[in-house]
Amino acid sequence: MSLSSIKDFQERIIQASKQKEVLRITGSGSKDWYGNHLKGEPLSTKAYSGILNYQPDELVITVKAGTPLQEVEAALAEKGQQFAFEPPHFGSATIGGMVASGLAGPGRVSVGGLRDFVLGAKIMDGQGQAMDFGGTVMKNVAGYDVARLMPSSMGTLGLLLEVSIKVLPRTAASATVKAQMDQSAAIHLMNLLASQPWPLNASAWVDGVLYLRLSGAKAAVQSAISSFAKNHHMQSIDEAEASHFWLSLREQTHPWFQTQSDQALWRIALPSTTDALKSSGDTLIEWHGGQRWVKGFESPAEIKELKSLAQSLGGHASVFRSKNKTEAMLSSLKDHPLTAPLATVEERLRKTFDPQGVFATGRLI
Prior knowledge:
The chain is α+β, with helices and mostly antiparallel strands. The protein has helices at residues 6-18, 69-78, 95-101, 108-111, 183-194, 218-232, 239-250, 255-258, 300-312, 340-353; strands spanning 23-26, 41-44, 51-55, 60-64, 81-82, 118-124, 130-134, 159-166, 168-169, 173-180, 200-206, 209-216, 235-236, 265-269, 283-286, 291-295, 316-321. The protein folds into 3 domains: 6-169, Uridine Diphospho-n-acetylenolpyruvylglucosamine Reductase, domain 3; 173-250, 2-Layer Sandwich (Alpha-Beta Plaits); 260-335, 2-Layer Sandwich (Alpha-Beta Plaits). The strands form 4 sheets. An 8-stranded antiparallel β-sheet has the order 13-10-12-11-15-16-14-17. Strands 3-4-8-6-7 form a 5-stranded antiparallel β-sheet.
């Protein structure tokens, strides 16, 4: 059944509530593999599509949840603007899926995550009530920031109908430099340069090579290129090669992700200055060291080892993709003493928005 209006969604949710039915919110299905195993009847937002309002001068766009991400980014590009946090598409992503997953690409380290760009949202709770939170311009955002609870909620709090997102202008200049070095040296240099006033927009270390993306004013970018070449022996790479490289990281089409793709792919969040991990397996590093990718670790003992290692270093590990995914491979607020109290708050929020458990799919543990 195609649901293309707020009334359609309201009727379907009320019906599910009465029948004690669980609904799984979905857009294009591009991230069905993400999070816990799928459960519940699909509630598709794909027919609820379109750009409602775009104010380039105010740097904000308001969009329906089922709108293709590619369509929105094309509209932004026409005005020289962008989602600076670089959300991955993983195929044919929708705006709703982009928000629900909360994922971001290489640029996140310099501009912040998707949550930082959400200004307001229209949400429907588990009782079919449509509610507006936040605003549509920066100066009007006030009150309890419910709209920013939606990113990374995986559709477990409520149905996102519409969202207003801050956009940024494209930078005047961009360049990528690279140099061969070991993992420890790369982590040190990424953090050293990030602490200095360089236009450093993104970083990655893969297969023994450190890549740095510079974005900003032309003079600042050129100054950085010259300094990094002189002091750190870094070389500029072709613009087309650079664009392909950063896109392959965002979409995980880089050969590092494709090799041994049958193994579990883990994402580890750590303090950026944490040294090279003392664990088996190859590593890919992003976000100045704050995000690290490793493969393998599928047995109960290996899972426990990796999670314990991440926790001992002040971070956490969670499986990103796996053909043999188990709940033990996912991270939870309950895993760490510092975040365990937040699990109670999260549960109260879910009960408030969805007292009948209409959206209790378990995608987010």
